[in-house]
Amino acid sequence: MTGGGDALAQLVLRDRDHECEGFGPGRVCVRVVAVAGLPTRAGPFRIVAFWNNRDAKEHVALVHGDVVGASDVPVRLHSECLTGDVMGSLRCDCRDQLTEGLAAIQREGRGVLLYLRQEGRGIGLINKIRAYALQEQGLDTVEANLALGFRDDERDYAVAAHMIHGLELRSIRLITNNPEKIRQLTAYRVEVSGRIPHVIPPGEHNRFYLETKARRSGHLIDLDALAPRSEQADPVVVAPAPQEPGAE
Predict the structure, then answer these.
(1) Which fold has domain 7-118+156-217?
(2) Which residues are documented as binding site?
(3) Where does GTP bind (predicted)?
């Protein structure tokens, strides 16, 4: 178990009857409803489940170390990507961003990864696959989303901001290349005290996708400084589970 477990458990009791005016245009309100240990390949975490009044999507936070009431906490916002996170798609860098985000938090000794149910930059799984089909006809990510009648990025980070406030983080160091995340969180009264770059070396199938992020969406990625990496999957390394006190 990571540190800070008791403080996280107290948040469940604190939020039992929580209601507020909410964040953002949708007036989204979240509350902490459950906390449990979660050993992962990156190391041990606590997983914090959030209820929200906006929709039926269940967002979670993976927490390592003592973060409740802390300042300058490393935080990664990760939007759900079924094709990348689960199926290992090489069309994007989402799985690498997820695993490296967890690893970065472990290296920092503490931190939070918010796993947000905003598939396909907020357009949903089916529309993301429709966008893939348009990309196979020559459109880039932004053009495909626009052709489907969406903005280039439909994500709103009001849920993330409320989750950060709910964890009582006084300030955060955001693990990101996306300045829009910093802008939105700041607008929702989250103090972003610094940025930790989060650049994944491109592969053969996602280089154009990453170039589009940099050139069309303003992501802080210097692709010219990155050497292409092999897309052979890295071997899985399972971190040893921490022993309980008194265990042999």
Answers:
(1) Rossmann fold (3.40.50)
(2) 76-81, 92, 94, 97, 119-121, 141, 176, 181
(3) 76-80, 97, 119-121, 141, 176, 181
